[in-house]
Prior knowledge:
Elements: E1 2-6, E2 21-26, E3 29-36, E4 39-43, H1 57-66, E5 71-80, E6 90-92, E7 95-97, H2 119-130, E8 136-138, E9 141-144, H3 153-159, E10 165-167, H4 170-179, E11 184-193, H5 204-228
Parallel strand pairs: 1-4, 1-5, 5-11, 6-8, 7-9, 9-10
Antiparallel strand pairs: 2-3, 3-4, 5-10, 6-11
Amino acid sequence: xxxxxxxxxxxxxxxxxxxxxxxxxxxxxxxxxxxxxxxxxxxxxxxxxxxxxxxxxxxxxxxxxxxxxxxxxxxxxxxxxxxxxxxxxxxxxxxxxxxxxxxxxxxxxxxxxxxxxxxxxxxxxxxxxxxxxxxxxxxxxxxxxxxxxxxxxxxxxxxxxxxxxxxxxxxxxxxxxxxxxxxxxxxxxxxxxxxxxxxxxxxxxxxxxxxxxxxxxxxxxxxxxxxxxxx
Length: 231
């Protein structure tokens, strides 16, 4: 069983329309997924969608584990910290930074983890993406901020020294998947330059336009994933 976790960029996508709903009860809450054959789709923001700081990542990953998921392909919308990583491109990150609180399944036991994303799965996702676009790179570092607001120029000036892209969800999801020994890889859709990276002021309208452009490529990649899967 494989799973796709989608975010805001897939809220309006029709690629999963017609997939039956399945409700999954977990110790952290009930999660709704869509199922077709050996693939599940989970909208991380839920329905109706919650902002990123209110997503119940523990319930989401616990639901996928309960359904027997053996690999997760996530789609994450991000901003770019580097001028060379242009909006409209894709990044397959291999590591992440989140110095703030991360959810865990180990609130009450002394269980320590050395987190490491699945590089073999990331390489396979990268090869799949290359079938549809040349504007994809692998090896980036994802920094997770808290949200729901975007980052200040001063925060970006500091964070650009340490990472390549910024979002609000991947580190939480990846950590929980690692705790449950589920391989996890992400396709990060670069929808904007972060605040202060480009000379042109950042606007939410610009982000919306870029999301609409990027989703066409992401949907083609997901179509390949649904047809071929990942070995």
